[in-house]
């Protein structure tokens, strides 16, 4: 197991993002508006849009993206099966390096999932 903690990564990044919100407010407002518009329910559900966002984060090898989008997916009720199917497509499209980050997304899911919601095999 890696020493990487997705809870710590997202916590640390959230603090740094607060600085950006304070010191570059217009940029952050614009980014927030874009995120809100892109992730809003439409022909695709919010859950499906977050799965797409996670896939891009995995393919881009972005730890923060993995942490934040896995947290959002858990909040939206993603199933382990939905997560695994998405990560399978990531591995297929991105090869070995993407497979390694798909494994990181599994670690993030297992770390960030509330203990009460964990299946016995993950506890």
From TrEMBL:
Pfam families: CMD (PF02627)
InterPro entries: AhpD-like, AhpD_core, CMD-like
An MF annotation (GO) of this entry: peroxiredoxin activity
Every Carboxymuconolactone decarboxylase-like domain range: 25-107
PANTHER family the UniProt entry points to: ALKYL HYDROPEROXIDE REDUCTASE AHPD, BLR3452 PROTEIN
NCBIfam families: ahpD_dom
Protein name: Carboxymuconolactone decarboxylase family protein
UniProt lineage: Bacteria, Pseudomonadati, Pseudomonadota, Betaproteobacteria, Rhodocyclales
